[in-house]
Design brief:
Blueprint lengths: L2 H19 L4 E4 L8 E8 L2 E8 L9 H14 L4 H17 L21
Antiparallel strand pairs: 1-2, 2-3
Helix pairs in contact: 2-3
């Protein structure tokens, strides 16, 4: 890990710890707007930090990523998954939806992710 990445991770973990101190049990800090070859999300909890990395995908079609990610996590929790499993599965799904987004030709500007990529 480069020194800059190490400093960035330390800052992210510090932010997560401050939110935990306010009463949150777990915090998910998204890395989609970061830099580098990977998009790393951080799940911060009382027992530590889990880094969830996926390749950064070059596309303009990222509209709806945050809402879709949180909905996918909620769906996993509703299925009875523990939080870390729900977050991991949602991260995998959202990454695939972003990767498939360029197959859509919808609107102008930043288009949506491909929510139904598994059915293509």
């Amino acid at each position: 890990m480069s020194p800059a990445a190490s400093e960035s991770r330390a800052a992210i973990e510090s932010q997560g710890q401050r939110l935990l101190a306010m009463g949150c049990r777990m915090v998910l800090i998204k890395g989609g707007h970061g830099q580098g070859a990977e998009s790393i999300d951080y799940l911060v909890g009382g027992e530590g930090v889990t880094a969830l990395a996926a390749p950064r995908i070059a596309t303009r079609n990222t509209h709806g990523t945050g809402c879709s990610l949180s909905s996918a996590i909620a769906a996993g929790l509703a299925r009875g998954e523990d939080l870390e499993t729900a977050v991991r599965r949602a991260k995998t799904w959202i990454s695939a939806a972003i990767a498939a987004a360029d197959r859509l030709d919808v609107g102008h500007g930043h288009g949506p992710i491909h929510h139904f990529h598994e059915r293509d």
